[in-house]
Input
Amino acid sequence: MWRKWLGTAKQDSVNLSLVEQVKQKPMPQHIAIIMDGNGRWAKKRGMMRSFGHRAGADRLRSIVRTAAELGVSVLTTYAFSTENWKRPAQEVDFLMKLFWEYLDNNIEEMHQNQVKVRFIGKTEELSPALYEKMMAAEKKTANNTGLVLNLAVNYGGRAEIVSAVQKIAQEVKEGTLSVEDITEEALSDRMYTAGLPDPDLLIRPSGDLRISNFLLWQLAYAEFWFTGINWPDFTSEVLLEAILEYQKRDRRFGGLKNK
Ligand code: IPE
Ligand code: IPE
Ligand code: MG
Output
């Protein structure tokens, strides 16, 4: 797929030797990204925040291509949190419009390249038209076998855990689940990410060193990688750098050093 798909390497001027280097070692199966810093990127250039969001959407398009070409199995990107409603209505409206546009402009290409698009978060609380569009995108790409792209929209890690617990409580009440069967696996199975491996690598651009309510359950043993680069400047090359760094980490999962 690397050569076949749209020449991202050219578009993002990726150093091909970096690609070769990254391919020497196991790829993270699941990468999670907090797409942050759009506003600061725009402000630095004397532009409105919306310009930063638009530039951020372009970055997502490239990073999806690159992740797919690299053979990453799952990419989960944080686009709008349950706390982002606190922003001015004008900005929220712009972001909702941008999600709509993103689907319009990219769904066909993603579909042709076997990307399976999924939305995680309380998408049912968005406008009915946007929600329907999102569900249609999921349905269209449901049988694709390439990269799984989770787009986190109106997503909150705590809200996700609460909803998993509610499902479990309901099942216990109905007698279909016993208290002894409430295991870590049972909870995982009731998260939005059910059936997917946990993230191996979490990336947060923009210089902020926090997870802002993202994938609280799933990030238990993820490797964290932070960069001061803002999301609109996040090229495929930066992604490769993050993966290279990840490949140098010693993941012990509580056990002993294995080098
Ligand atoms: C991330 O960029 C996009 C969303 C949260 C929707 P920000 O809008 O948070 O940009 P900064 O953090 O203000 O620079
Ligand atoms: C996290 O970024 C959410 C997204 C990138 C979608 P925020 O910009 O909302 O996070 P805080 O407020 O800096 O923690
Ligand atoms: Mg931010």
